[in-house]
Amino acid sequence: MDNTEIMPIHDFHSERLFVDAPLGAGKAVECTSQQAHYLLNVLRLKSRDTILVFNGRDGEWKATLRDTARRRCRLIVEEQSRAQESGPDISYLFAPLKRSRLDYMVQKATELGAAHLHPVFTRRTIAGRVNLERMRANVIEAAEQCGILTIPEVAEPVPLARLLESWDKTRRIVFCDEAAEIADPLASLARLAPGPFALLVGPEGGIAPNERESLLAYEFVTAISLGPRIMRAETAAVAALTLLNAVHGDWKGDV
Questions:
Q1: Partners of 17 in the beta sheet?
Q2: Higher model confidence: residue 13 or residue 18?
Q3: What are φ and ψ of residue 95, in 5° steps?
Q4: What pLDDT shows up at residue 239?
Q5: What mean pLDDT is predicted for residues 212-233?
Q6: Predicted local distance difference test score (pLDDT) of residue 214
Q7: Which of 28, 36, 192, 199 has most Cβ atoms within 10 angstroms of its Cβ?
């Protein structure tokens, strides 16, 4: 029997903080006033307490709190706890939703490993604008809470027609379509060659008929069904990303 100790995927007990700074042994990270408030007043950490930090590029590191003051502090990076992970190469394209439902969708897409988040305006999109800073804050919060090392890129919103015109044809778009010819989504995905992939989930009212026609005219677009029930957009996002991860993402046992 192999008695080799199995290391945990990540430390579930330590607090984690995203920092936008290079990380490495001995480096000092100056905390923003918002981060200092979170560390000192919310978490109530003291000088020489430790926390895990990550930046989406250099892995996860143990850092010690130093030079604490009412509105400032810094972190001294000590040792790496986890090497950087790449995650699945999946872009998530979606019609924006209103506030709390968009927050939920962004958080779940981050947890499910999306590498890019790209708002797309369609004919039936309800939300007329997108708060990108709020989206980025939700991405970071989800990554901090769930032990994720990669930070999805948040793209500027774009109309669907313009997105398709300038699309990189080497990245196949998997389009969630209630009228897909094959009812079994797993069977549809299994027929596709390996990625990279993008997943497109439309608005609450669905993709308009002329938009669906335009999508299916492109060879790099594949329509899949999500089963017999109609889902809300944020539920469809979780279901579709789960399916794509299971067939072509990093959930496969041989990856």
A1: 53
A2: 18
A3: -75, 125
A4: 94
A5: 92
A6: 95
A7: 199
Cα 89–chain centre separation: 11
Task: Indicate if the alpha-carbon torsion angle 242, 108, 91, 20 is positive or negative.
Answer: negative
Predicted pLDDT of residue 7 = 40
- 180 and 188 Cβ atoms separated by less than 8 Å: yes
DSSP string, 148-203: ----PEEPPPEEHHHHHHT--TTSEEEEE-TT-S-S-HHHHHHTSPS--EEEEE--
User: Residue range 141-146: average pLDDT?
Assistant: 94
HEC assignment per residue over 52-105: EEECCCCCEEEEEEECCCCCCCEEEEEEEEECCCCCCCEEEEECCCCHHHHHHH
Q: Which two tokens stand for residue 227?
A: 């089963």
Stretch among 29-33, 61-65, 179-183 having the lowest mean pLDDT = 179-183
Question: Is the CB of residue 117 less than 8 Å from the CB of residue 155?
Answer: yes
pLDDT at 209: 93
CB atoms inside a 10 Å sphere around CB 241: 22
- Look up residue 119 and give its two tokens: 């708002």
Strand partners of residue 118 = 93
Residue type, 223: A
